[in-house]
Specification:
Blueprint lengths: L2 E3 L13 E5 L3 H13 L2 E6 L13 E3 L5 H8 L4 E4 L6 H9 L8 H8 L1 H10 L7 E4 L12 E5 L9 E4 L2 H9 L4 E5 L3 E11 L5 E3 L3 E6 L2 E7 L6 H17 L4 E10 L4 E7 L9 H4 L4 H9 L13 E8 L6 H11 L4 E4 L9 E9 L2 H16 L3
Parallel strand pairs: 2-3, 2-5, 3-4
Antiparallel strand pairs: 1-11, 6-9, 7-8, 7-9, 10-11, 10-12, 10-14, 12-13, 13-16, 14-15, 16-18, 17-18
The structure holds adenosine-5'-diphosphate.
Adenosine-5'-diphosphate (ADP) binds next to strand 7, strand 9, strand 10 and strand 15.
């Protein structure tokens, strides 16, 4: 299942410790910093505030606004390569930076597909990728072809299900349009479940594919990841990996690419969306794969040879820790660690707010039911009441 293919990449030889800049200082940057330590690299982060998740642990922090070109320039100066822990940098700023010689990986043309759902759907059509039927929405009449209920999505700026609405009438579409949000509409796919195919690609064209995973969602937030996706079958798992590798190559993605997929009740796989950065569906790789997605992302953006995506354990389950009513997570940590010395707890150092992703727990083993129960029990205990 694990695949490494492509040519031998060139190494980056700068004669000094390479500096990878990551725009954003959330948990993805924080976990990338861990991997940077192992590889002896410097990770510089562009943080909104000094107490951002990654800014608390990395020494090389630039505090600034990722929407401000001057701040982006200040941050990029001295970086060998700039990459991202989110996709919200304005495309016009990315174009300016690229024009000034800043090495952006992934580049603006690829990244557009993670920033703009309309560009994503147009490219799915051009590449003939299996995807939900969709229409751009200028008025409620445009939606008629798909029928109701229908899924309306903000073209830009959505995450964790914000910017996605199941809509039942033209009146509701008009109300969304009246807010000034650019919209598209998609058929409401009859879902069996959601999957994610995570791959990495380097500028030299080397690629590696992780086992396809199942992502369990609740209210638009991923709450659990199961690796590999139970019962998917080798053929469809390979098809999903090949689809993701093809997208990475066609769009010239550099770094991690997560292709979020819908499995329909009839067993079809449809593309939901792309993320071009380490992804929540790949956190299991920290303990569950020979090379974590964070290390793989760093290797890829520096054009270093990629690591093995092989999975030594039979099953790995990740349960996300969401904030509960009582923010004192550390009061509950001793109990979690004592109850199950085998689970791995990752807390992101974020302020606890109800429903906010503040960490995850990983369990690996030979029996799927057992690793699921262990990871979920630990995550629930950390969350606490409410
Ligand atoms: P975000 O960018 O906020 O993550 P997504 O486009 O991934 O938004 O949608 C969030 C969730 O909404 C998906 O994980 C899925 O559960 C549901 N969803 C999105 N599009 C559809 C669709 N066309 N049909 C059915 N469910 C959908």
């Amino acid at each position: 299942m694990a695949a490494c293919e492509g040519v031998t990449p060139r190494a980056v030889t700068t004669g000094r410790v390479p500096v990878v800049g990551m725009v954003g200082a959330g948990q993805l940057a924080r976990m990338t910093h861990r991997a940077a330590i192992d590889l002896g690299l410097t990770l510089r982060v562009l943080a909104d505030a000094p107490d951002d998740s990654a800014a608390r642990v990395t020494p090389d922090v630039v505090v600034g606004n990722y929407r401000d070109l001057a701040d982006l320039r200040r941050f990029a100066a001295g970086c060998d390569v700039v990459t991202f822990d989110h996709e919200h940098v304005p495309p016009e700023h990315l174009a300016v930076l690229a024009g000034e010689g800043v090495v952006l990986r992934p580049g603006p043309a690829a990244l557009r597909h993670a920033q703009d759902k309309r560009a994503l759907r147009e490219t799915c059509d051009e590449l003939k990728l299996p995807a939900p039927q969709w229409v751009p929405v200028g008025s409620a009449g445009d939606v008629a072809r798909l029928g109701y209920p229908v899924v309306c999505k903000a073209v830009r700026g959505g995450y964790d299900g914000r910017g996605v609405w199941v809509v039942h009438s033209p009146g509701e579409v008009e109300r969304l349009l009246a807010t000034g949000t650019a919209l598209l509409a998609e058929e409401l796919v009859p879902l069996r479940r959601e999957l994610s195919a995570v791959v990495a690609r380097s500028p030299a064209g080397q690629a590696a594919a992780y086992p396809v995973v199942e992502t369990v969602q609740s209210d638009g937030i991923c709450v659990e990841v199961l690796a590999p996706a139970p019962g998917l079958g080798e053929e469809r798992a390979s098809a999903a990996q090949e689809l993701a590798l093809r997208v990475a190559a066609e769009l010239d993605v550099v770094g991690i690419l997560a292709v979020e997929l819908f499995e329909t009740v009839s067993g079809e796989l449809l593309v939901n969306e792309f993320a071009m950065r380490p992804h929540n569906s790949g956190h299991w790789t920290i303990e569950g794969a020979d090379t974590s997605q964070f290390e793989q992302h760093l290797r890829a953006v520096l054009d270093l040879p990629l690591g093995s995506p092989r999975m030594p354990a039979r099953w790995v389950a990740v349960a996300n820790v969401l904030g509960g009513a009582d923010p004192d997570v550390f009061a509950r940590l001793p109990e979690v660690l004592a109850r199950d010395p085998g689970v791995k707890v990752h807390l992101y150092g974020k302020h606890v707010r109800p429903g906010r992703k503040i960490g995850h727990v990983t369990a690996a083993g030979d029996a799927l039911g057992e690793v699921r129960t262990r990871a979920s029990a630990a995550a629930a205990c950390l969350r606490g009441p409410g």
